[in-house]
Amino acid sequence: MRIARFVVDSDPLYGVVEDRKVHVLAGDPFFQGIKPTGQSHDLDDVRLVAPIIPRSKVVAFGRTYRKHAEELGNQVPAEPIMFLKPNTSVVGHNEPVTLPSFSDEISFEGELAVVIGRICKDVPAEKVPEVVFGYTVANDLTARDAQRTDLQWGRAKGFDGSCPLGPWIETELDDPDNVGIITRLNGQVRQDGGTNELIWSVNELVARASEAFTLLPGDVILTGTPAGVGEVREGESIEIEIEGIGTLRSVFRR
């Protein structure tokens, strides 16, 4: 099932996407369940927005793919590197991203994102599916120059617009550890990998996040990016396609 958040006239609504239509839901599915109202809209007639604005946080992981660590000249860490992105970093499908004035080196990173469905803490890896609401596509935008000079990654990874999510949440993904990830810059393939290359499984990463933080409904876990990252500039576009979910598109401006 694909759960989208969208705008028709004013306030965002939730809906189930099926056969190019969005079937409107009553209230917030994270707290009220899937309750159709009987209303629907053509998908082409609505504007998709970020499928979730995290209630508290985006927990992200770095260097979880061996080849990506190597392409940036880094060693593969003994433990996955964990950092936070604020909820103000989140933007939706097709929404413009304003490149920050403090950086001249913004890099794209196509990633599988996990959306948490209920409050949890210290979840064993084998029980992670019980706390997952679904999966979406993410772009972990990074200011590489700030990442090199700053002692911590808060500015480099957390600037406004640095976490595009979308186009919707897929609640049923057969095997999160075996989905393809393709990133296109202006239509040209730059990343072509998959979660079968992860050093740690998706469930292991979510479990690690739950060791450090209490996870709340709507929190998002970014699982890291395959090799092939590169810079994006004003006027360019990025499309990230994840098998079984869909394609997230972002455009960039100054």
Short characterization:
The protein has 254 residues and is mainly β. The protein contains five helices and 20 strands.
Question: How would you describe what is shown here?
Answer:
This protein is mainly beta and 254 residues long. It has 5 helices and 20 strands. Strands 1, 2, 3, 4, 5, 6, 7, 8, 11, 12, 14 and 17 form a 12-stranded mixed β-sheet that branches. Strands 9-20-19-15-16 form a 5-stranded mixed β-sheet, with no helix packed on it. A 3-stranded antiparallel β-sheet has the order 13-10-18. Strand 19 and strand 20 form a beta hairpin.
Secondary structure: elements and pairs:
Elements: E1 2-7, E2 13-18, E3 21-25, H1 29-32, E4 36-42, E5 47-49, E6 58-62, H2 66-71, E7 81-85, E8 90-91, E9 96-98, E10 106-108, E11 110-116, E12 132-139, E13 142-143, H3 144-149, H4 154-158, E14 163-170, E15 180-185, E16 188-194, H5 202-212, E17 220-222, E18 230-231, E19 237-242, E20 246-253
